[in-house]
Amino acid sequence: MSFSCNFSARARKQLAGLALLGTGALMSFSAVAADARNDAYQKEREACLSGASHQDRATCLREVGAARGEARRGNLTESQSYDGNASQRCNALPPADREDCIQRVRGGGTVSGSVEQGGIYRETRTTVIAEPPPPSAPPPAYEPVPVVPPAAPR
């Protein structure tokens, strides 16, 4: 089966023009994305150099460089995957604790601490009413013991 395309010269010129416009639009989009990545890199680098990152400078600059490389490869993800990752961490817990974990991840309970302080602590409190103890056995029955008066001295 063969196809033949007989386009007029005018149609070929129009197709070539559309292809050129599409290529230009694609190139400008990728240039805008590269500019956005570069802007983010510069802001993060400035935070490292000013000490606003709460990390030592060498570690901060190394991480910023690594993030820039991952962004160029398209491997950086947004916060949507953050929520999914948090829920996946809850799956490692026993079923009895899993629901509480998911509730904490979704913002339930109280939150304290910060990344700068070494971690974020999320807490939920669940009040559990203790079951009453089983009834105790009745005290043993004692038989009365006769009291014998002491013997008189001889």
TrEMBL record:
Sequence ranges of Polar residues compositional bias: 76-90
Protein name: DUF1190 domain-containing protein
Annotated Pro residues bias: 131-154
Region (Disordered): 70-94, 129-154
UniProt keyword annotation of Calcium present: no
Keywords (A to Z) from UniProt: Signal
Residues of the signal peptide: 1-33
